[in-house]
């Protein structure tokens, strides 16, 4: 049974047509011969190979450019600025920009030379002259000028007062520091110290006499003598 089935399978396989590589390739476009098609395919393969080579060269050049910028200290921001400057320069020298600038200049000349513009300018000049010559404008200007002068004078006075006060305080401190030793060495200050010492000694002596009278039997009923002598 198995041998019979294998024989039928082999017979069926021999009946299936086998496509060759030539038959699997898509048919050539109309108007091209096989030789032309082969030539075009060979040229396409060469171009694709050149494109790959150029991509590798470009990548190597970009890496080298990045290394040079890094060594020079150039940042991506510097490159962006250079690109923007170059782009703006390209825009300025472009035909569209030049034509637009010329058109704007022509429109400006037409507007400034028009009767409406001249009339409006003269009207504004008349209003400005009338305003500057009016009494209200002059009074306002004088008031502002006087207010500015008063403010400046007040600030100057305040500064003078503060400076004078600081000077008085510093001179008083200097005089006080200088006069204290001289005052202590004066005759008046020494006389005052002597009087204070005399009063102190008398007070201490009277206290000692009263204490002795209280402890002694003979002076139990006697009154302590009064010292009516002046200080």
Walkthrough of the structure:
The protein has helices at residues 2-15, 21-24, 34-72, 76-92, 95-113, 115-133, 135-184, 187-215. By secondary structure, it is mostly helical. 83% of the residues lie in helices and 0% in strands.
Our estimate of the beta-strand percent is: under 5%
What's the total number of strands? 0
On the 0 to 100 scale, the average pLDDT is 76
Unreliable spans are 18-23, 217-222
Q: State the shape.
A: elongated
Instruction: Characterize the largest beta sheet: strand count, sense, and whether it forms a barrel.
Output: none
Number of helices: 8
Strand and helix order: HHHHHHHH
Compact summary:
The chain has 231 residues and is an all-alpha fold. Helices cover 83% and strands 0% of the residues. It is built from eight helices and no strands.
Provide keyphrases for this structure.
single chain; about 0% strand; mainly alpha; elongated; about 230 residues
Map the helices and strands:
Elements: H1 2-15, H2 21-24, H3 34-72, H4 76-92, H5 95-113, H6 115-133, H7 135-184, H8 187-215
């Amino acid at each position: 049974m198995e041998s019979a089935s294998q024989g039928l399978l082999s017979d069926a396989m021999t009946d299936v047509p086998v496509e060759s590589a030539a038959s699997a390739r898509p048919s050539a476009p109309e108007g091209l011969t096989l030789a032309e098609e082969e030539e075009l395919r060979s040229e396409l393969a060469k171009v694709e190979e050149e494109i790959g080579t150029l991509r590798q060269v470009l990548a190597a050049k970009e890496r080298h450019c990045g290394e040079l910028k890094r060594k020079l200290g150039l940042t991506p921001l510097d490159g962006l600025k250079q690109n923007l400057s170059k782009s703006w320069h390209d825009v300025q020298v472009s035909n569209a920009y030049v034509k637009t600038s010329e058109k704007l200049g022509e429109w400006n000349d037409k507007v400034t030379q028009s009767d409406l513009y001249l009339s409006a300018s003269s009207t504004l000049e008349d209003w400005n002259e009338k305003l500057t010559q009016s009494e209200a404008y002059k009074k306002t200007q004088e008031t502002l000028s006087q207010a500015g002068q008063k403010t400046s004078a007040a600030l100057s006075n305040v500064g003078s007062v503060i400076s004078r006060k600081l000077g008085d305080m510093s001179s008083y401190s200097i005089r006080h520091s200088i006069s204290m030793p001289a005052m202590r060495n004066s005759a008046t200050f020494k006389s005052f110290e002597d009087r204070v010492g005399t009063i102190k000694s008398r007070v201490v002596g009277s206290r000692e006499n009263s204490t002795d009278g209280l402890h002694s039997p003979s002076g139990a009923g006697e009154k302590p003598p009064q010292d009516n002598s002046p200080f």
